[in-house]
Write a structure and sequence with these properties.
The protein has 277 residues and is mostly beta strands. The chain is built from two helices and 13 strands; from the N terminus they run ααβββββββββββββ.
């Protein structure tokens, strides 16, 4: 049995263990509560509605720093009305806007295919199980690609008047690493954790300040052995009826902000606007 086959068997075993409690028989009221709380993730934090097949997936923003412009857009699509099978796509671009021809330094494509298990649970509200790809669509020495299977846990809660949304990723199986990035696992590990805390400060007009944090593990999953940290502040202006800008300040430190620089440590402070809400 090959290394990939062994890894795939391990991943399937993990999926089955996760699915057992999901498929266990429950009371109708418990299922309804799980569905309602799942919608709260979309309504409180993403401001999307599960009934709409298209919705945001990851943060959408355009922010500028001293060296470049960072642009990300992300969405997901729910294929069936009564089954939580999703396709998602995220595009992250670092743009050298200060150079004469304004070339894109790196363009990262991240398609996903996953199934969402919704369950009222003390530790998580839903779990996504699926496939994730990352590449920069180029050739030569700057070409990078990575294929992995993942499990993502999601939860939302209230802390006083604040809304908390947290997520945790586990990548137990690596299917493929590009020839030019065979050692990417030495810089970016197999798990990450992040959260959004909404309405740290809230004005009666609806304006609010939110805090975002993401921590990516390093080599062999060891927290501070490489990896990266991303922190952000988001201020929502909702007092105007025709234009509601959301100001976004983000700081990145560590390795692999884009896959081209997976083995380069960087730190950058950027500011701009977001469309996360």
């Amino acid at each position: 049995m090959s290394k990939v086959q062994k890894s795939s068997c391990l991943f399937l075993a993990i999926v089955l263990l996760l699915a057992l409690p999901v498929f266990a028989e429950t009371e109708n009221t418990e299922t309804e509560n799980a569905e309602k709380r799942q919608r709260l993730i979309e309504q409180r934090v993403f401001r999307n509605y599960r009934e709409n097949p298209f919705s945001m997936h990851k943060p959408n923003y355009a922010i500028i720093g001293s060296n470049d412009l960072k642009l990300q857009y992300s969405f997901k699509y729910r294929f069936f009305t009564k089954a939580d099978l999703y396709g998602a796509f995220t595009n992250l671009i670092l743009w050298d806007i200060y150079k004469d021809q304004n070339p894109a330094y790196d363009n990262n494509y991240q398609p996903e295919l996953f199934y969402r298990f919704v369950k009222e649970n003390k530790w998580f509200l839903s779990a996504d199980v699926g496939y994730w790809h990352l590449s920069n669509g180029t050739s030569g020495e700057n070409a990078r690609s990575w294929d992995r299977l993942f499990v993502r846990f999601l939860q939302t809660d209230k802390i006083f008047d604040m809304d908390l949304f947290w997520y945790a990723h586990i990548w137990p199986v690596t299917l493929y690493e590009g020839r030019e990035n065979k050692d990417i696992g030495d810089y970016l590990g197999w798990w990450d954790y992040g959260f959004w805390l909404k309405n740290i400060l809230k004005h009666q007009s609806g304006d609010g300040l939110d805090f975002q944090f993401n921590f990516r593990s390093g080599k062999h999953g060891i927290p501070f052995n490489k990896g990266n940290v991303t922190a952000g502040l988001q201020y929502r202006i909702q007092r105007w009826t025709t234009f509601n800008p959301t100001l976004f300040l983000q700081y990145f430190y560590g390795y692999g902000e884009v896959i081209r620089d997976y083995n380069v440590r960087s730190d950058e402070l950027r500011m701009g606007i977001s469309w996360f809400y």
